[in-house]
Design brief:
Blueprint (H helix, E strand, L loop, with lengths): L9 E4 L6 E5 L2 E2 L3 E2 L3 E12 L11 H15 L2 E5 L5 E5 L3 E6 L2 E6 L3 E4 L6 H20 L5 E7 L5 E7 L4
Parallel strand pairs: 2-6, 6-10
Antiparallel strand pairs: 1-5, 2-5, 3-4, 5-11, 7-8, 8-9, 11-12
Bound molecules: ligand LPXRUNBV.
The site of the ligand Nc1nc2c(c(=O)[nH]1)N=C([C@H](O)[C@H](O)COP(=O)(O)OP(=O)(O)OP(=O)(O)O)CN2 has 9 residues, from helix 2.
EC number: 4.1.2.50
Family: Belongs to the PTPS family. QueD subfamily.
GO molecular function, one term: metal ion binding
Length: 169
């Protein structure tokens, strides 16, 4: 039976296994720089599009596995921004050093994930995850989806959300 014309469909995945524990610090209000601290981040991913022959938007399992492949890489790591104007991040063959003015943090390279963001806010993390999950699944899911949305929960109900068109690069 065809869907009513005004109907829209989405698939939402939000699994306990998406929770990842990571350390970060952000700046805000211009020049306030947080202490290094951690969160158990939660993630929800939604895609919208027409129903396929299975009457799926996309297979939950395929979307779930794509999200896990990304969030798993961030679990138990320090997340550092590469585009911040004042937090400078530099890696040598062993260590990654982040500096903000007179402050300095040094980590083993393998403990760090460098993200192409200005600030490691929940919103920016949601954008990076949305881009990466879209990239990872585009071939499998095809061109007919309309958008992907990723929401990142920093502290039990504080969500940063990013929605991207499906068919942009
Ligand atoms: N829109 C956003 N606002 C804030 C973000 C963000 O990513 N997007 N991030 C922060 C900070 O990272 C802050 O550390 C949030 O952590 P939280 O633990 O919630 O802050 P609290 O000091 O209130 O923690 P409590 O554990 O509740 O004491 C701020 N804003």
């Amino acid at each position: 039976m065809p869907a009513p014309q005004q109907a829209t469909f989405r698939v939402d995945v939000s699994k306990e296994a998406f929770v990842f524990s990571a350390a970060h610090f952000i700046t805000f209000a211009g020049d306030i720089c947080e202490r290094l601290h951690g969160h158990n981040y939660g993630v929800r991913v939604t895609v919208e599009g027409p129903l396929d022959d299975n009457r799926y938007v996309v297979d939950f399992i395929a979307l779930r596995d794509a999200v896990l492949a990304e969030t798993g890489q961030w679990d138990h790591h320090v997340l550092l921004p590469t585009e911040h104007a004042e937090i400078r991040v530099h890696s040598d063959d062993k260590e990654t050093t982040a500096t903000f003015r007179e402050r300095r943090w040094v980590f083993p390279n393998e403990d760090c994930i460098l993200l192409p963001v200005i600030n490691t806010t929940a919103e920016e993390m949601a954008r990076v995850l949305a881009e990466r999950v879209r990239q990872r699944t585009r071939e499998q899911f095809g061109e007919t989806l309309t958008w992907i949305e990723v929401a990142v929960d920093e502290n039990h109900g504080q969500w940063g959300v990013c929605r991207l068109p499906w068919n942009a690069s």
